[in-house]
Design brief:
Blueprint: E1 7-15, E2 18-26, E3 33-37, E4 40-45, E5 53-59, E6 64-72, E7 78-84, E8 87-88, H1 89-99, E9 100-107, E10 110-117, E11 122-125, E12 128-129, E13 133-137, E14 140-147, E15 150-158, E16 166-172, E17 175-177
Antiparallel strand pairs: 1-2, 2-3, 3-4, 5-6, 6-7, 7-8, 9-10, 10-11, 11-12, 13-14, 14-15, 15-16, 16-17
Length: 182
């Protein structure tokens, strides 16, 4: 594997199926552009005469749309910005905090990253969409699933406050798991 000498940007993007690493090489003398997602080459362009522009690709199991914008910022300096689903990375992360809950836990020596997509109630564990069973209970809903022979349940209960909305809690083997901040 050739050394990434023209590496100009690296981003970590948390999606439902995991945290993905995006690397970008930009050879300003050769016009080369290379995009790697999780170490795998997704795009390679040699001898691009136009040094500014946009490279689009997808990330992860959900084939999330991504783009790297290349803009000149005077002289021979360039700025690289990553967009996810048409939003700047910052806006994407802010929106994701509102639409998902993430928990990190260790069961039997193995780390698990569980993500709840609040809009669809889909549950992901270490990159796999989980088979779930939902039920209505007295104070809200429960979404049941199993991780490594451990019974898991995400309880959705109204906070009673309009601004806070619904509170989602992960319970594994009758133990509440604190939410992770990614």
């Amino acid at each position: 594997l050739e050394k990434m000498t023209d590496l100009v940007a690296v981003w970590e993007v948390a999606l439902s199926d995991g945290v993905h690493k995006i690397e970008f090489e930009h050879g300003t003398t050769s016009g080369k552009r290379v995009v790697y997602v999780d170490g795998k080459e997704e795009i390679r362009r040699e001898w691009m005469f136009k040094l500014v522009g946009k490279e689009t690709f997808t990330v992860g199991a959900t084939k999330t749309k991504a783009a790297i914008n290349i803009d000149a910022v005077g002289g021979f300096a360039y700025e690289y910005t990553l967009e996810i689903n048409g939003r700047s990375l910052k806006k994407y992360i802010e929106n994701r905090l509102k639409t998902t809950n993430t928990w990190i836990l260790n069961l039997g020596g193995t780390d698990y990253r569980i993500v709840l997509e609040k809009d669809t109630m889909d549950v992901w564990c270490n990159g796999q969409k989980m088979e779930t069973a939902g039920e209505f209970v007295e104070d809200g809903t429960e979404t049941h699933f199993t991780v490594a022979d451990h019974s898991c349940c995400i309880k959705a209960v109204s906070s009673g406050k309009r601004k806070e909305g619904i509170i989602h809690t992960l319970i594994v083997d009758n133990r509440e798991i604190p939410e992770a901040v990614e």
